[in-house]
Specification:
Shape: globular
Order of helices and strands: HEEHHHEHHEHEEEH
Strand content: 5-15%
Radius of gyration: 18 Å
Largest sheet: 7 strands, mixed
């Protein structure tokens, strides 16, 4: 094996729907994170069938607000604000809207497919090299940017989501590369900091020949500049709805 080339199994897996929670890939709204949290181990990691996206089960929707699942809870709250829902029982809304189901409005994925405890480069071990053929996390990311991102862009072109909400502002350029292409990542973006208790960044750019709006927000986490409160999620959701209504010129912008 050329030690600077990926294994065939990793290449197949990384170019499929790995790192994807799934839902309705034909839906109008996609959510994209950086990578799954928690962290894979040598015992838990496996190359599964990623030929098609998964979808949430009814049990996953019921469990989302019963268990400690902060990212998904906040994603659903942000979605509720984007669609201007008056339902504040978010667990009920998740059931009624069949969130991340095969016929829902929503699809959810990540830039990178492997699960880590956090997104720093030092989390790369010998077993990951053995599985992927890539000796560092930075090389793994570079390979994904050169290969996996192209597949992600192709899926945007095929399925034409109206809105992609990307969570993790420090990865702004990588989100644009993944869904809009390398050239698009060098173009100016629209910026409009949200004034809450402290300013938080929001950027957006049309991609896919204007058929899709890509929005990049802070991460849905606990840190100082993350989106962690219902108030912040409402502010950002309202702004995103206005961005979409303005770009598409109508309030029913989710309809393709």
């Amino acid at each position: 094996m050329n030690k600077l080339q990926p294994t065939q199994e990793f290449e197949r897996w990384a170019n499929g729907f790995s790192g994807c929670d799934g839902g309705n890939i034909a839906g109008p709204i996609w959510f994209c994170g950086i990578e799954w949290g928690g962290g894979d181990t040598e015992k838990t990691f496996q190359f599964g069938d990623v030929s098609k996206p998964n979808a949430w089960t009814d049990q996953q929707r019921e469990d989302c607000f019963k268990k400690k699942n902060p990212y998904d809870q906040r994603a659903i709250k942000l979605y509720a604000s984007i669609i201007r829902s008056n339902e504040k029982d978010y667990a009920k809304l998740a059931i009624e809207k069949n969130v991340f189901g095969t016929q829902s409005d929503l699809f959810k994925l990540n830039l990178y497919p492997i699960s880590f405890r956090h997104d720093q480069d030092e989390l790369w071990e010998k077993w990951l090299y053995d599985q992927t053929g890539l000796p560092t996390k930075s090389m793994y990311r570079a390979w994904c940017q050169a290969n996996r991102f192209q597949k992600m862009k192709e899926r945007v072109q095929e399925h034409k989501p109206r809105l992609i909400v990307c969570t993790g502002y420090g990865y702004l350029r990588e989100f644009i590369m993944a869904f809009g292409g390398v050239d698009k990542s060098f173009e100016p973006v629209n910026e409009g900091p949200i004034q809450a208790e402290s300013p938080r960044p929001l950027s957006w750019v049309p991609i896919n020949d204007g058929r899709t709006i890509l929005v990049v927000t802070p991460f849905l986490g606990y840190r100082k500049y993350d989106l962690y409160s219902d108030g912040l999620l409402n502010l950002f959701g309202e702004k995103i709805a206005i961005i979409c209504e303005t770009h598409f010129g109508r309030t029913d912008w989710m309809q393709k």
